[in-house]
Design goal:
The complex is a heterodimer of chains A (100) and B (491). Chain A is mainly alpha-helical. Helix content of chain A is 62%, strand content 6%. In chain A, strands 1-2 form a two-stranded antiparallel sheet. In chain A, α1 packs across α2. The chains are: A mainly alpha (100), B alpha+beta (491). At the A-B interface, α2 and α3 of A face α2 and α3 of B.
């Protein structure tokens, strides 16, 4: 049973890149470590494509075949908004649990 | 497995591969290779393709091609048949020195053609042709079906006699066709049918002549000549299946399927919302439709012909219009006392109000009129009696009773004419039992399905209304922007 409350690949990638720039495989490993979800290569790159189109991440030029990505200012702002909303949900749920 | 995954990565569109291909390959080398990974790459590749601006064209085109190929392959499963055909003409020939009015000749030619067709396609005739040793038709079908059923199948499926117009416009022409997997046998069957038609035509002319000599003591003033305008053809090309139609249907179906698939893929929520509104409309209309009673219509038709006398042939007496006969019959049948007593009788089971309404306005539920019943060769003037009711058995009872009444009344009229007619030829015709003017073409049967499809119509209307409302509601959600409401994709 999957107990993660955050399963949106785009949000997970943004969270991973918030720490610093990473290439695809590093993101995959990182997300598995902190999120407990193993993203497939297709899912990961589908999300990377959409994030880049929205301007939330950008590719860092590199000689290596494995291209690293970094989060942009817009991406950070979006992540913060999402996390604030999530936090509100978590806080409310915790408060209600305490009073239950 | 890695090779399979690398192959699946080629599902991504070229522009995407140019942008991400190198790094994606590097990731695939590092990431574990298993079935989950393969499915994930394939699904994601497909998703990227579906998001492409030209997806509609590509998917529709691809499915059209697949549909066309599948339909073409399917067409080979349909039995191949060759059609041979010939053209015949029936032309009335009046005796020299006897001036027969053209309308009389026309009426006789129509009747003759209709009779000739039914004789030529009679079950025994067809069974004789099927069993001819040199033809030995339908061997497989004959192993599982009685010959009578095989003959019926031929009439319904393989043989056709259809009227055509010849450039010179003389007589009544028709095309006799027969479809069979063997072109030689197809031609031989058409030739056999023509031979049978010619034999029957000669017999009919002879019998009419004998009848005229017996009744009127004179030879029949005309005969029907049957000419073969064109001999049976030997078909060189397959007539069925029409592969071009199969190809077109397959490609058309593929295009529609492709467009629908992309629409649902891109906007599943909007599509499902609209579909839910459509279903709701269906449900509401379906529930409403049960409040409206469906009506069943029973029908019977009777061929009507007036007695045929030498005076008419000579043009001395006009052929009586059949409409007059029908009008007289209607007056007799629907005369208030008799009809009212009948509809109020317990055996029909009408409630008082319905019976009273039928008494005063029988035309609300009962039809009684002259129609031209189309047959394969000629339109036959006939009396059509219909009754419409919420109870199918009662509708049949109504028509059945009316048919009996018409027959009884007609019999009485003819007897009366025999004793009282001032025209001795009419009396003579009745005496010899010719000129019988009623023949049941279609007997009244209990209608199994309602004639007024309120329910289906309402449900379809409900679905359309629901879909329209669903689209409009989507428009509201998208601030009046129609494209997303209709789930029109954008690149």
């Amino acid at each position: 049973m999957n107990c993660n409350i955050v399963t949106d690949p785009q949000l997970l990638i943004l969270a991973s890149l918030a720490e610093g720039e990473k290439h695809g495989y590093a993101m995959m490993e990182d997300i598995e470590k902190f999120g407990g979800i193993r993203l497939g290569a297709g899912t990961l790159y589908g999300a990377i494509t959409r994030l880049e189109e929205q301007g939330w991440i950008c590719r860092v030029e590199s000689e290596d075949r494995r291209k690293p990505y970094r989060i942009t200012g817009l991406g950070q702002q979006h992540l913060e908004e999402q996390m604030t909303a999530l936090q509100r949900v978590v806080k409310t749920a915790m408060r209600r649990l305490r009073h239950a | 497995m890695r090779r399979w995954i690398a192959w699946a990565a080629r599902l991504y569109p070229r522009p995407w591969r140019e942008r991400y291909g190198e790094e994606f390959s590097a990731l695939l080398k590092d990431a574990p290779a298993d079935w989950r990974q393969l499915a994930d790459v394939m699904w994601a590749g497909l998703a990227v393709r579906m998001a492409d601006g030209t997806t509609y064209i590509k998917v529709a085109g691809g499915l059209a091609l697949i549909g066309a190929i599948a339909a073409l392959a399917g067409s080979y499963a349909v039995p191949q048949r060759y059609v041979s055909s010939a053209i015949l003409r029936i032309a009335p020939v009046a005796d020299a020195g006897r001036n027969v009015p053209p309308e009389v000749l026309q009426r006789e030619a129509d009747d003759h053609a209709r009779e000739l067709r039914s004789l030529t396609l009679a079950r025994d005739t067809l069974i004789g042709i099927i069993r001819k040793p040199e033809l030995n038709l339908y061997p497989a079908e004959r192993e599982i079906l009685p010959l009578e059923d095989v003959a019926e199948n031929i009439v319904a499926r393989d043989v056709s006699i259809l009227p055509i117009k010849l450039p010179d416009g003389r007589g009544k022409a028709f095309r006799v066709s027969f479809a069979y997997p063997d072109p030689e046998k197809a031609r031989a069957v058409v030739a056999a049918l023509i031979a049978e038609a010619q034999r029957e035509n000669a017999d009919m002319n002879r019998n009419t002549d004998i009848q005229w000599r017996t009744v009127w003591s004179e030879p029949v003033p005309f005969s029907e000549r049957l000419d073969v305008v064109s001999l049976p053809t030997l078909p060189a090309e397959l007539s069925e299946p029409r592969r071009s139609i199969f190809l077109a249907c397959g490609a058309g179906g593929g295009v529609l399927l492709g467009l629908m698939a992309v629409l649902l893929w891109r906007h599943p929520k909007a599509g499902l919302r609209v579909a839910a509104w459509g279903l709701a409309g269906c449900g509401v209309a379906g529930a409403l439709s049960f409040l409206i009673a469906e009506r069943y219509t029973c029908r019977a038709s009777m061929r009507v012909t007036a007695p045929f006398t030498p005076a008419e042939v000579a043009g001395e007496v006009a052929v009586p219009p059949l409409s007059g006969w029908v009008e007289n019959m209607r007056m007799e049948i629907f005369s208030r006392d008799y009809f009212c007593n009948w509809v109020k009788s317990a055996k029909l089971g009408f409630d008082e109000a319905t019976a009273a309404s039928l008494c005063t306005q029988p035309e609300r539920a009962i039809g009684f009129r002259m129609v031209d019943v189309a047959s394969a060769i000629a339109a036959v003037p006939a009396l059509e009696i219909t009754a419409s009711d919420t109870d199918n058995v009662r509708a049949q009872k109504l028509v059945n009773e009316l048919v009996i009444r018409v027959e009884v009344r007609d019999e009485r009229d003819r007897e009366s004419a025999y004793w009282t007619s001032s025209n001795p030829q009419i009396a003579q015709a009745h005496k010899h039992g010719i000129g019988d003017n009623l023949e049941i073409l279609e007997a009244p049967t209990t209608p199994e399905h309602p004639s007024t499809h309120y329910r289906i119509t309402l449900i379809i209307a409900g679905a359309v209304m629901g879909l329209t409302l669903g689209i409009l509601r989507n428009c509201g959600r998208t601030g009046g922007n129609v494209a997303p409401a209709l789930a029109i994709a954008h690149p």
